Amino acid sequence: MVQDSMSFMCLQAGLRRREEFPEPETKGRRSPIGVGVKKTKLELDEAADGFHSDREIGDGGFGTVFKGFLRDGRTVAVRRLYENNHKRLEQFLNDVKIVEPLRHSNLVTLYGCTSHYSRGLLLVYEFVCNGTIADHLHGPRALTWPLRIQTAIEAADALAHLYAIEPPIIHRDVKTNNILLDNSFHVKVANFGLSRLFPLDATHVSTAPQGTPGYVDPEYYNCYQLTDKSDVYSMGGVLPCW
Q1: Residues forming a β-bridge with 169
Q2: Percent of the chain beyond pLDDT 90?
Q3: Which domain does 233 fall in, by range?
Q4: Locate the Protein kinase domain: which residues (predicted)?
Q5: How confident is the model at residue 46, as a pLDDT?
Q6: Residues acting as catalytic residues
Q7: Residue 162: closest CA among 205, 110, 113, 101
């Protein structure tokens, strides 16, 4: 408990300069943190209408997502991490460290974060309006074949970008529910709470298996060895669903 409290105090101090919301970019590069207009916890509360259930648009393993509107007119997705989840601090730090510097047209943009909302941890992303790939596989909303091919290529391009930067990033939870579609049906890969930075000089990282059953690389699951091929296996499991 003492260690967790110390970690959270350090987190609050270290993230004060990160409570900013940079304009989205689409260039394939990592950018510095701390560019943009500062947003307060009051504005986040207003943006999500007090986190009323009418604004709720999603519910996942780490938190609930609400639709919000910033004062500058931008529509955002505000994720409030569960207070009773012991891994929420780890997930919060992971998103800030890994996602915030990323700029790529097929990766969801993290506008900012705050650790000052009561006891809550909030992450503020661009709003992606057309749901997930999983929502468009069957029925009247099913993607056409040209769109299926386009979105599959864009998802692969997003993962390739993660591996090409230094240090590389392994997503660890590639699945149809984590691949979003914008209003033009372009891909936005999201949900980096389980992601890991991969050492440049390593062949694998020894770590307990994380991810969704059915998509997890069997070698990773059985041997506890995460490699740069683990996401490739998961993507191979996703493609037949397309």
Answers
A1: 197
A2: 31
A3: 133-241
A4: 51-242
A5: 64
A6: 173
A7: 101
